[in-house]
Amino acid sequence: MKVQLEIGYMGDIDTKKMTFEIHATFRQWWMDERLVYNSSMGSKVVGLKSLRDLIWTPTLFFINEKDSKLVVSTRDNIYVQIDPDGNVYYALR
């Protein structure tokens, strides 16, 4: 499994409350042999939250996190790609 955190914005650090705010994109890559499929069906399967809800995804968390939420947007902030060899790319912000 590979994990990447890209910080797009970092707000002020409040040293008294010991808090700060970031806007980030969180990406994960892993291989799931159960998702291998015949590539004649297409080069990759791409979807949003509805596809994510159908597959296993790792549970990751930040220790000592105070609060977190997905960015509110008119578009879904979750992207999933499954390659024929079972490699999964999962991103959220």
Automatic annotation (TrEMBL):
Query: Which keywords does this chain's UniProt record carry?
Result: Receptor
Q: Name one GO cellular component term.
A: membrane
UniProt xrefs under InterPro entries: Neur_chan_lig-bd, Neur_chan_lig-bd_sf
Residues of the Neurotransmitter-gated ion-channel ligand-binding domain: 2-93
Repeat as a keyword of this entry, yes or no, is no
GO function term, MF aspect, one? extracellular ligand-gated monoatomic ion channel activity
Full protein name: Glycine receptor subunit alpha-3
The species is: Trichonephila inaurata madagascariensis
